[in-house]
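Incident review: delayed structure delivery

Summary: a single-chain prediction request sat in the queue longer than the usual turnaround. Root cause was a stuck worker, restarted by the on-call engineer. No data loss occurred. The affected request and its eventual output are reproduced below so the record is complete for anyone auditing the incident later.

Affected input:
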Amino acid sequence: MEYTLLNDFSQINAQEWNDLLQESVSDNPFLRYEYQSAWWEHRGGGEWKNAQLLLVTARENAKLIGIAPLFIAEYEGQPALLLNGSIEISDYLDLIVRSDDHAQFISGLLDFLASNLADSWSKLDWYNLPDDSPTLAALKAEAEKRGWTHLEEVYRPTPRIALNGDFDEYLSRVEKKQRHEIRRKMRRAAESGRVRFYIVPKDADIEPELESFFHLMIQEPNKALFLQDVMRDQMSTSLRAAHDYGYLWLAFLEVDGVKAAASLNFDYKNKLWGYNSGVSRDFMELSPGWVLMSHVIQWCCENGRSEFDFMRGDEDYKYRFGGVNQYVMRVKLVKP
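Output delivered after worker restart:
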């Protein structure tokens, strides 16, 4: 493999990147070219002030084999190599490489980084690797081979609901009390005659819909603190790109014609990835957040989606809806 260091997203073709991702060991919305480039443009909503982009590609006979989207920054007192997208707003990260090329790509990548950038970094610190990614075992094996220190830990839970097309079957797997609550709240909302669930059409003007979403999102104080101007710009750029590429999925619950709750997801690889949500403090007697979440899962069942992924976080409601934990990991390799 011939490794090349790039320092700008313009140096690699977006379609070539996304085509490889579709065959990669990890294919998720946070690894797509448009998300990765938008994240770097805004440095994660201002999370990283001083950082240097390192896009490492590997080719064989001009064919793209692997991509390591990385950056160097001071982290915990040392210069570190991190995955582009780290840490807080990209739920899943990984290398982009096919399974058959994976082990060879990682070994060659570490050789390349150690020989060409040896003085620039002292550790590799990768967050949000899926717990089933082969990158975990490969990094451990490479660390042992090289005499590097290896540390691996669970970083966050990522609860998920497996679905098989039957909403009643899904409900049968939810704890009895919560199952009763879901049905009762959906029925009460329907019988009120005041509630409407709708999904924003793919060809809609997304700007006013995003404005409505952000308005609902900031009703929660912690999210209002999170959504500073630079973070809002970051999210807006990423969400517009997802809309342009056809995998943004945004739904609202209206009460008396007023948007009362929003669910913003990625509809990607036959599952919904639950990215964020917002609920108005008004109309709480109709439980708009619960009702909307119930409709989202019902839509997944009726439209053949195999899973709803709540993504990172251990909020109580995720488990009340039947979420089952998987995890994202943090792996650190430290050179001697």
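Verification: The domain at 2-156+328-334 is CATH 3.40.630.30 (Aminopeptidase).
Action items: add queue-age alerting; document worker restart procedure.
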